[in-house]
Design a protein that fits this description.
Layout (H helix, E strand, L loop, with lengths): L1 H13 L2 H30 L11 H23 L5 H6 L3 H6 L4 H28 L9 H27 L4 H21 L6 H6 L2 H9 L2 E3 H23 L9 H20 L3 E3 L10 H8 L5 E6 L7 H14 L3 E6 L3 H5 L4 E6 L2 E6 L7 H13 L3 E6 L16 H9 L2 E6 L1 H4 L6 E7 L7 H12 L3 E5 L10 H7 L1 E7 L12 E4 L15 E4 L2 E5 L5 E11 L2 E11 L7 E5 L15 H13 L23 H29 L6
Parallel strand pairs: 3-4, 7-8, 7-9, 9-10, 10-17
Antiparallel strand pairs: 1-2, 3-5, 5-6, 11-14, 12-13, 15-16, 16-17
Helix pairs in contact: 1-6, 2-3, 2-6, 2-22, 3-7, 3-8, 6-7, 6-11, 7-8, 7-11, 10-11, 11-12
């Protein structure tokens, strides 16, 4: 019975002229969209905007947007193009014919649904020829493409079932289409409304985009499948129940419908609760990096992650998904989402606490986005080095790490301790040695000269290949430091930097807004504030590789106020940072803009081997993609004309056979 009704419904669908008009229009729009996306991808590659560290292949840059736009187009087309819905049948009073044929409501619902499902499946297969054709010119991520096509099919199936349910209770097709579209639009808007609602997590789980986006990225999860199949099954059951209560059909019984809904909920609950999660993309877009997985396997005790991030932040969803991946990969990982207080929200403060046993490290997210690379770097530093020792010299008028006044470094000390470092004060006059467990020695603006014995200890410390942070300002005593500056091949300019006049209260404040590509300044986009800074002149010695960190524009040209140095000897991983300013880390200034983050980054870079604490970039399998010369004409004219020609030829053939009487209704 279902098969015979399907043939009848398919004939009605194929003989409708508006059916072929809709299909041709969709094919032309899809071909134009795909051609534009291909041009955008070629432009990116030609302009070298895709870097190996943060690049995607043609599947993610061209095919993924194409699949997403077509999926959204189905929200309009499927409800609008339903010429033989129940509303249409009721308007033309043809439902009585099914009663005379002893057709059950459930049978009629399934027949109409499977007919529409088969028709739209054929349409989507014609649209899938465009991305699949790229396999002829290069390598494509077929895993992500296959799951994306599955997302098409699930989207279409759910939309068709919802349209059928609405048409059961409507008298006009146009009203049914409008109500269906508004319902789907509400399911989309729920994702943006969820952060403002009391039960945001629950409403977010109802969002259509929340379950569609993972599928378009090549990720299949049990909860996403349960979402689409659940709405589809529920709409079909309710459609059959609503149709059975019409006067032209025999009653089906509420108990039977309740049993069907209960069975459906049980099956979907099992699917959603199974925890099924599989990344089918060849580029592993939804999986952790191999280095991250290896680092997680080394966990011997629970790792607690506390994310302080506003739920309304555009980075909240990606951060939450990443934490879910970590918890899914290792049972030792536990995460907690904490809504920041109003004071933190006003200051736009966001951070992630990593707690491993008694060790703790904070990843500041105020000035940088949460990514796997900065998480790996923080976790590596937390696990591999545990607590590193940072020694601040004292006894010569340096900045005091216990001083809570505006000129002290107490806030900086607490920031380093919160980041997992052990911070101590070191008086070389009394100790007369630098302990071996000191990883970074900090000299922060000595006002009095150093004794020769102390300077010799520092020079010996430097000759051992150990790390140093040297901070100076115009009030620092620099004569006794000259042998140290000579060893570093640096020269301090005699006068303070006079920046170009700008819109700031103090003309002696140097603002740094552009940073070089360096591990210290990676992902920092906020201004650094350096009051009363000294300029540095770089040397030409071959013993050090000097790299300017901070530069300021002055009337006489650019001046360097911060430089990083690495040893030129390949067997030594020695690092030194010299900055012509001490005030930027003082209590009065450290909380301004990027200063605190810069201070943490400098100490992290000095204390760790950044080569092993970085994720190695993975080149996508479809990164290298070259199009032949004729490809543009193929996608500009070939596919649109070819698809439309085949579609019109098929429509003409069916109409001709109908007029010849070879196909009877």
């Amino acid at each position: 019975m279902v098969w015979r009704l399907m043939k009848h419904e398919m004939r009605l669908l194929l003989f409708a002229r508006q059916t072929w008009a809709w299909v041709c229009a969709l094919q032309v729009v899809a071909a134009a969209l795909f051609y534009w996306l291909i041009l955008q991808f070629e432009y990116k590659v030609g302009a070298q905007l895709l870097k190996k560290t943060d690049s995607y292949g043609i599947t993610e840059d061209a095919i993924h947007p194409y699949l997403a736009w077509i999926a959204l187009a189905l929200l309009f087309l499927v409800p609008l193009h339903s010429p033989n819905t129940f509303a249409h049948e009721r308007r033309h009073q043809t439902l009585q014919w099914y009663r005379l044929g002893a057709v059950l409501p459930t049978t009629l619902v399934w027949a109409k649904f499977f007919t529409a499902l088969l028709f739209w499946t054929l349409v989507l297969l014609s649209l899938a020829l465009l991305p699949c054709s790229l396999c002829c010119f290069g390598k494509v991520d077929l895993g992500q493409l296959s799951v994306g096509l599955l997302a098409w099919w699930l989207m279409m199936m759910m939309t068709q079932a919802l349209a059928m349910l609405v048409s059961t209770y409507c008298q006009q097709n146009i009203y049914a289409a409008i109500i269906t579209f508004l319902s789907l639009l509400l399911l989309i808007l729920v994702e943006w409304l969820a952060p403002y609602l009391p039960q945001g997590i629950f409403f977010k789980s109802l969002s259509l985009l929340h379950h569609l986006k993972p599928l378009l990225g090549g990720l299949i999860q049990g909860q996403d499948l349960a979402y689409f199949f659940g709405i589809t099954g529920l709409c079909l059951i309710l459609s059959a129940l609503g149709l059975s209560h019409r006067a032209c059909f025999r009653g089906q019984g509420a108990w039977r419908g309740l049993a069907q809904v209960s069975l459906l909920l049980i099956l979907l609950g099992g699917l959603a609760g199974s925890g099924f999660r599989r990344d089918f993309s060849w580029n592993q877009l939804n999986s952790l990096h191999q280095q991250t997985e290896a680092l997680l396997q080394s966990l011997k005790q629970p790792l607690r992650l506390e994310l302080y991030l506003d739920q309304k932040s555009p980075n909240f969803e990606d951060s939450e998904d990443f934490l879910k991946k970590l918890a899914f990969k290792n049972t030792h990982v536990h995460y907690e989402l904490v809504q920041p207080s109003q004071d933190l929200l006003a200051e736009k403060v966001a951070y992630l606490n990593l707690v491993y046993g008694e060790q703790r490290k904070t990843l500041d997210l105020s000035n940088s986005a949460f990514s796997e690379s900065n998480f790996y770097r923080s976790l590596y530093q937390l696990l591999k080095s545990q607590s590193h020792w940072v020694a601040f010299l004292e006894g010569h008028g340096e900045r005091d790490i216990h001083d809570l006044s505006d000129q002290g470094y107490a806030y900086f000390r607490e920031s380093l301790k919160h980041n997992g470092a052990s911070v101590i004060s070191l008086n070389l006059q009394s100790l007369q040695l630098i302990p071996d467990n000191v990883q970074v020695l900090v000299l922060a603006g000595n006002r009095d000269p150093l004794f020769p014995e102390e300077l010799n200890l520092i020079l010996d410390y430097l000759k051992q290949g150990r790390h140093l942070l040297l901070l100076m300002d115009p009030q620092s005593e620099k004569t006794s430091l000259q042998p140290l500056l000579n060893a570093l091949d640096l020269r301090v300019l005699p006068e303070a930097i006079q920046p170009l006049p700008g819109r700031r209260l103090d003309p002696n404040i140097s603002l740094v807004s552009q940073y070089p590509k360096h591990p210290i300044t990676r992902d920092i986009h906020t201004v650094g504030v350096f009051p009363w800074a000294l300029g540095l002149a770089l040397g030409n010695a071959s013993t050090w590789q000097q790299y300017p960190l901070f530069t300021v524009k002055t009337p006489s040209g650019e001046q360097v106020l911060g430089v990083s140095l690495t040893s030129s000897a390949p067997e030594r991983a020695q690092k030194v940072v010299v900055i012509g300013n001490t005030q930027f880390l003082a209590n009065r200034t450290i909380l301004n803009y990027a200063n605190r983050d810069l201070g943490r980054r400098i100490l992290d870079w000095l204390a760790y081997n950044d080569n092993t604490a970085e994720l190695q970039p993975q080149v996508p399998v479809d990164y290298y993609f070259e199009f032949p010369r004729y490809s543009r004409w193929l996608y500009l004219l070939g596919f649109p004309l070819g698809l439309v020609t085949v579609t019109l030829a098929l429509a003409t053939l069916l109409q001709f056979q109908r007029r010849q009487g070879r196909i009877l209704l």
